[in-house]
Amino acid sequence: MAWIVLIGSGVLEAVWATALGETKGFKRPGPTTVFVVALVLSMAGLAYAMQTLPTGTAYAVWVGIGAVLTVVATAVRGQDRLTPVRAALLAGLIGCVIGLKVVS
Questions:
Q1: Buried residues in 44-81 as b, exposed as e (16+ CB within 10 A)
Q2: 47-100: per-residue pLDDT in tens?
Q3: How far apart are CA 61 and CA 6, in angstroms?
Q4: Is the dihedral of CA 9, 13, 16, 18 positive or negative?
Q5: Amino acid 44: pLDDT
Q6: N or C: which end of the chain has fewer CB within 10 A?
Q7: CB of 29 closer than 8 Å to CB of 41
Q8: CA distance from start to end of the chain
Q9: What pTM does this model have?
Q10: Which Pfam families match (predicted)?
């Protein structure tokens, strides 16, 4: 159960990170609300997962999922470029996250 919550929290990390960029310095109420709600839920899920998972592993998985999804989301929206080198590096990051799960 902790792994499922952790994965969901990682997805919410990408949501709040993307929403943060859209707040324009917290001047736009819609994205600001999405940011705050996703941030609170993401942190709560991470805290829950850390009750049973090693802190380092949980944090690395959470950050890895959030980072990869944030880059993909911004690339899909045309705000960032996804070059072959960046895609390979993201694939390496995904591999490392999977590796942490396997050895845990």
A1: ebbebbbeebeeebbeebbebbbbbbbbebbbeeeeee
A2: 999 999 999 889 999 999 999 999 999 999 998 898 999 999 999 998 988 888
A3: 8
A4: negative
A5: 98
A6: N
A7: no
A8: 14
A9: 0.87
A10: Multi_Drug_Res (PF00893)
Token pair belonging to 98: 């999977």
Let me know the angle formed at the C-alpha of 83 by 80 and 87, rounded to the nearest 5 degrees: 100
21: Cβ contacts below 8 Å, ≥ 6 apart: 74, 79
DSSP assignment of 31-91 equals: HHHHHHHHHHHHHHHHHHHTTTS-HHHHHHHHHHHHHHHHHHHHHHTTSS---HHHHHHHH
Burial of 84 (0-12, 13-18, 19+ CB in 10 A): exposed
Please name the amino acid found at residue 83.
Answer: T
Query: Could you report the per-residue pLDDT of 14-49, keeping only the tens digit for each?
Result: 999 999 999 999 999 999 999 999 999 999 999 999
